[in-house]
Amino acid sequence: MENTYSSSSTDNKITKVKKILPLIAIVLGALTLFKMAFPSTQISVTGLGELSTKVNKVSMIVTRTNSSPIPSDAIQKGEEGLNTLIKEAKTIVGEEAEIQKSFYTISQNSGQQVVGNQLVTVSNYQVSNGFKIIFNQIDKVTDLVKALYASGATSISNITFLPENEDEIEKEARKLALKNAREEGRKIAASMGRILGRIKTVADDQAEVSSTISSSQESVGSGEMDISKSVSVVYELW
């Protein structure tokens, strides 16, 4: 009896498989014909993710240049000048500010000048060094920039306002950018009478999230900041 039951059950399974196989073949054949009749193409869409968040900290790069006919003197002046700038910065934004010193560069410049009654060639050594400062006293940005220039800074660049939990904010901005890319891709596909397919490639701009401060804010760095991130997505188009 057990063998009869087992044989009958196996036969039923085989019968079911035989019935399903033609259906699978029909579906696959239909898909193949569809792809042959309507071959896929690709489109590239740029998506932009934007959101607002509270400003948490700011970073900037400060450089100073010193020169002297004597290399060692130029280096010493550069180091002393840099320490003066760092001390001034911490006085304004607090001792807890993060300082990252950069390596200095030395270059030799030659020029002619009149010494007595003779025109002679004079060599001058120029030393440039700097530091990056990150701090959370956002309302002190303008005061700090003024004070650093007054203390001998040559340039202040890459002033960037940063949010709290920067990594999480960047992920959220990227997610919004991908969503925006799909929405734009669907619009393009619909205008062409096509269907938006799967993603083929995604290219991130690989840059830090860019930020801007609303012009309606009373002072630089106060209130909220606007964050943006862009991605380039290639889709199949059917």
The total strand number stands at 8
Instruction: Identify the CATH architecture of the domain at 63-161.
Output: 2-Layer Sandwich
Measured on Cα atoms, how large is the radius of gyration? 33 Å
Principal-axes geometry comes out as elongated
Task: Report the span from N to C terminus.
Answer: 56 Å
The average pLDDT score comes to 81
Structure, briefly:
With 238 residues, the chain is α+β, with helices and mostly antiparallel strands.
Can you walk me through this structure?
This protein has 238 residues and is α+β, with helices and mostly antiparallel strands. Among the domains are: 38 residues; 99 residues, 2-Layer Sandwich (Alpha-Beta Plaits), CATH 3.30.70. Strands 1, 2, 3, 4, 5, 6, 7 and 8 form an eight-stranded antiparallel β-sheet that branches. Helix 2 runs antiparallel to helix 3. The longest helix has 36 residues. The radius of gyration is 33 Å and the shape is elongated. About 3% of the residues have low confidence.
Write the layout of secondary structure elements.
Layout (H helix, E strand, L loop, with lengths): L1 H36 L3 E28 L2 H23 L4 E4 L3 E11 L2 E18 L5 H10 L4 E9 L2 H26 L4 E9 L5 E4 L10 E14 L1
Antiparallel strand pairs: 1-4, 1-5, 1-8, 2-4, 3-4, 6-8, 7-8
Helix pairs in contact: 2-3
Entry keywords:
alpha+beta; Alpha-Beta Plaits; 8 strands; 238 residues; elongated
